[in-house]
Write a structure and sequence with these properties.
alpha/beta; TIM Barrel; DNA polymerase, domain 1; 2 domains; seven-stranded mixed beta sheet; 7 strands
């Protein structure tokens, strides 16, 4: 089995890149990809450790983008994590995150929740700091029982502390991944209803920009969504990917390699993905 959607302490996960590799080996995984949100700061540790282990490691990233007032995510695989254009785009996204964090904190304070930036930075171990870190602090301070409760009440769209993000366009995100030598995969296209009735329209647009594939194996997908993603990839000459979207204890119930316990992503998905990448 494989897992090509994993987050570490470089963004909002709770396991270091090295620990993720060790856990993956214990689970007998064949291949993994490190895909932190808007940062590649964990890639060096990831590649240095995976080079000495009996497991395949793909350097990756997950980039959020804005299209028609909706947020979508793109995974970049086999990226050159030192590419200047990529680094500049990720830095811009993180700078916008910082500005957003200040606004979120202000709104939370105005709603009687005593939280400050220093506490959030202490919780975050990497350079990409965001809502999961804020949520963790609020849970630790006893304001909410779970991170899920924080999001549903405060941090999700419409919540009392919600602040919209400033994000790159799909053209900027996909072109940057391609320029960094990678291939672009549409992450969890049906997750939380983000594709909606516009799935085919969005897919066609992303393909025009250079989309290479679709994440079809995902813990939150129904069998129908899984099948729809596979069919769409087949119809449009795209490759497939899959992963758990593992965040460690920041996302309880999602296990490395198996998601909620029943996700199985076969090795052939990696083999076909590699073949697509080699020919691109």
């Amino acid at each position: 089995m494989i897992d090509l959607h994993i987050h570490s302490t470089a963004s909002d996960g709770t396991d270091s890149p090295a620990k993720i590799i060790d856990k993956s080996i214990d689970l007998n995984l064949y291949a993994i990809a490190l895909t932190d949100h808007d940062t590649v700061s964990g890639i060096d540790e990831f590649l240095n450790n995976v080079a000495t282990k009996n497991i395949i490691g793909i350097p990756g990233v997950e980039i959020a983008m804005l299209w028609k007032n909706r947020e979508y995510h793109i995974l970049g695989y086999w990226i050159d994590h030192k590419n200047r254009r990529l680094l500049d785009l990720l830095q811009l996204i993180r700078d916008n995150r910082k500005s957003r964090n200040h606004k979120i904190i202000s709104k939370l304070n105005n709603n009687g929740l005593n939280i400050n930036l220093e506490e959030i930075l202490q919780k975050a171990k990497g350079e990409s700091v965001g809502r999961p870190h804020i949520a963790s602090v609020l849970v630790e301070k006893g304001y909410f029982p779970t991170i899920k409760d924080v999001f549903s009440t405060c941090l999700a769209t419409g919540g009392t502390g919600y602040v919209p993000r400033i994000l790159p366009t799909p053209e900027e995100a996909i072109n940057t991944i391609k320029e960094a030598g990678g291939i672009a995969i549409w992450a969890h296209p049906f997750h939380r209803g983000k594709a909606g009735n516009n799935f085919q329209e969005n897919l066609e647009y992303f393909i025009k920009l250079g989309l290479a594939g679709i994440e079809a194996y995902y813990p939150e997908f129904s069998q129908n969504q899984h099948n729809k993603a596979i069919q769409a990839a087949s119809d449009n000459g795209l490759t497939l990917s899959g992963g758990t979207d593992y965040h460690g204890s920041n996302q309880p119930g999602i296990n490395l390699g198996t998601g909620r316990g029943n996700l199985q992503i076969p090795n052939k998905v990696y083999d076909k993905l590699l073949d697509y990448y080699s020919k691109s």
